[in-house]
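Box 3.1. Reading complex inputs
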Amino acid sequence: MFKYMKTLNYPVNIKKKDLKMARYLLTQFGGANSELAASLRYFSQKFSMPDEKGKALLNDIATEELGHVEMIATMVKQLTEGASPEEMKNAGLGDIYSEHGMGLYPTNASGSPFTATYFAVTGDVLADLSEDMAAEQKARAVYENLINLSTDKDVIGPLLFLRQREIIHFNRFNELYNYYKKKGY
Amino acid sequence: MLFENNDFDFDLLSLSGLNLDTSQMIYNNQNYFNDMNSNKLYSSKEGFLRGNMWVNEYVPYKGMNYMNLVPTCEREALLYKIMEVDFAINDLNLYLDLHPEDYEVYNQFKKYVTECIRLKDDYSKKYGPLSLEETTKEKYNWLNNPWPWDKTGGSMYV
């Protein structure tokens, strides 16, 4: 089960409205390499991990990633705070606004809704962990692109934190992959 | 370099005029690593700011420095401290999942767990609950604003 703790994983305190950046960031909420995809992928895969190390690691990274979903959603919310429909339209968020208003809806940067096809579950421990390692690298690359697109330190700070988490998760998955490989899976 | 002159100043101690009973404890927290391999792990604060407790796994992007966190009030300072220790627990947790036999790291993990319980208890008594289990006041206050995603005049948790 899950219990909520009333803090973010890392502080998000964005003061400057930036709708274009919000649009770009949306992809880490509902895109193919998003935190939501990562969290649900690991959550689903934990059920077919063969031993206690795999079960624990997949469970605990899935939990952490759900906290990252909340961080990204918070960033999008704060970047769009107080925006008018006109401003949303000018920032390329008109289509999203027409269907979802100022509500947060998981899509990628070009508006495609989140889909379960973003997370692969094969039931094969080596295939799943290879997928997870690739996902962490892709998410790291996306964070670097997002950092390149921003000039606001209040946006870049949390993105640098999230980028480093992808590196750590990759390293842990890699370690688990090698451990299972050695065990003959 | 985007973020320069980081000076780790979100300790309660750095806020002038404060004299909290937690200050000494928080200050002492910085000495946790004197008795272990200090090259292996960052302090909880250094790790939290970097997004990583492990010295040899930190890979800064294009030489950018991490953001400096400056609390605007005593409440925010205590909250950052809780987030910091909670982060350390989480990062050591992932490592311990793969290395449960590493007692050096596990002992460090346990220190952070004890620290976190103490800090959360202190916070909930002063400012309200962060977990449902801490919702014990006469009046039900779990629902009270702010929630973590709220922005209140540019500064949350105030």
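In summary: Residues 5-9, 11-37 of chain B have pLDDT under 50 and may be disordered.
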